[in-house]
Write a structure and sequence with these properties.
The chain has 354 residues and is α/β, with parallel strands linked by helices. The protein has one domain: Alpha-Beta Barrel (TIM Barrel). The protein has a seven-stranded parallel beta sheet with strand order 1-4-5-8-9-10-11. Strand 10, helix 14 and strand 11 form a beta-alpha-beta unit. Helix 14 packs parallel to helix 15. The radius of gyration is 19 Å and the shape is globular. It binds coproporphyrinogen III. The site of coproporphyrinogen III has 22 residues, from strand 3.
Length: 354
């Protein structure tokens, strides 16, 4: 495997010295790029794109051709695990993901199983190894999965939800059923991320996109507890190098201390918590990734640059910061504005690493 030429992302996650703050964007390979839309059309559908290792690698590398990014992220989806459990995943245009066979009862939950990583999810591992080969050491590759709670919201609701009414009713009335689902999911995520690491992922991120809709008590019991189990079960080193783990709970700013207690290397931060406050609370224990409001990219390049300068200053001197958006880039963003953001980080951050 080719020697890694740019490791500042991995170094910052481990709070080792860097020459400047590394930067990547959640959803950096996606619909805001016309070249992504063209490749997706060629593939036929979103899942066909995920299942085609050459095309999945092509879209993974597209943002790196445009911008000086410090990491690539596997092109795939968090819903590959429930899809592999046979729940019948479809992506409907305008509607988002839909599961034909939602999990609603204890009997449904008892039918769930840990998918076989080689046969059911082998296409994801093939994409990981193809991307590593095509990256040829340019930047590290991030693997990822959804958190058990976030995956369960889609599986129980049958798709996206605004109210979480079905899964919350299950959580309050049939907690044992939900715990069974979350347990199978945690075991699946451990096997899935370890398989990605063995296939070549050099860091992994757990997306807990919907943990923030829970009360603090329920967050501990139904989301964080299972992420803790995942961190404990992961292979933390591969090929003689540490494999950092990033936990991201959208809306999790008030629980950073508890998240750091899991033993993760880094926490993802959305824009509703100031990064100086987050650093003061947990910065001696974990690195922080974030946390620019993705909506800033609708503003002018000058305003974007000013926001980058503010966040760099808020974080302050020293390593332990990976610059990112606080959530995925919106599909309508002008790619030139994404470029203004990334260039601003590369140009303005070296002064904090002297
Ligand atoms: O970040 C990247 O560039 C890597 C690829 C990636 C995708 N999804 C590609 C994708 C990653 C890391 C994800 C994670 C994901 N998927 C999450 C967690 C991240 C977050 O936003 O917090 C969630 C909740 C999902 C589930 C999912 N996948 C939804 C709800 C949708 C539809 C959303 C929409 O806006 O239509 C998807 C589809 C999806 N996943 C797309 C992409 C690029 C759009 C598919 C397309 O139409 O081309």
């Amino acid at each position: 495997m080719a020697e890694l030429q740019n490791d500042r992302f991995l170094r910052a996650l481990l709070k080792e010295p860097v020459d400047r703050t590394p930067v990547w964007m959640m959803r950096q390979a996606g619909r805001y790029l016309p070249e992504y839309r063209a490749t997706r059309k060629q593939a036929g559908s979103f899942m066909d794109l995920c299942r085609n290792k050459e095309l999945a690698s092509e879209v993974t590398l597209q943002p790196l051709e445009r911008f000086p990014l410090d990491a690539a992220i596997l092109f795939s989806d968090i819903l590959t695990i429930p899809d592999a459990m046979g729940l019948g995943l479809r992506f409907e245009t305008g509607e988002g993901p839909v599961f034909d066979k939602p999990v609603r009862t204890l009997a449904d939950a008892k039918k769930l199983y840990v998918p076989d990583m080689a046969s059911d999810l082998g296409y994801v591992m093939d994409a990981v190894s193809t991307i590593r080969k095509d990256l040829n050491g340019r930047v590290p590759l991030i693997g990822f999965s959804g958190s058990p709670w976030t995956l369960a919201t889609y599986m129980v609701e049958g798709g996206s939800s605004k109210t979480y009414s079905i899964i919350k009713a299950m959580m309050f009335d049939q907690p044992a059923t939900l715990h069974h689902i979350l347990d199978v999911l945690a075991d699946s995520v451990i096997a899935y991320l370890n398989a990605q690491i063995e296939a070549g992922a050099q860091a992994v991120q757990v997306f807990d996109t919907w943990g923030g809709v829970l009360t603090p008590r329920d967050y501990n019991e139904f989301s964080l507890r299972y992420m803790h189990k995942i961190v404990d079960g992961l292979k933390r080193e591969n090929d003689g190098r540490k494999v950092p783990v990033i936990l991201f709970t959208k809306g999790g700013g008030q629980w950073l201390e508890a998240m750091a207690d899991t033993g993760a290397d880094a926490l993802g931060l959305d824009w509703t918590t100031n990064i100086d406050n987050a650093r003061a609370r947990v910065g001696d224990r974990v690195a922080l990734q974030g946390n620019m409001d993705p909506s800033i990219l609708y503003a002018s390049p000058e305003r974007i640059r000013q926001e980058v300068a503010t966040i760099l200053k808020q974080y302050g001197n020293g390593s332990g910061h990976v610059f990112n958006l606080g959530h995925g880039i919106h599909p309508e963003i002008n790619p030139e504005h994404a470029g203004a953001f990334i260039h601003a980080v590369t140009e303005l951050s070296a002064q904090y690493h002297k």
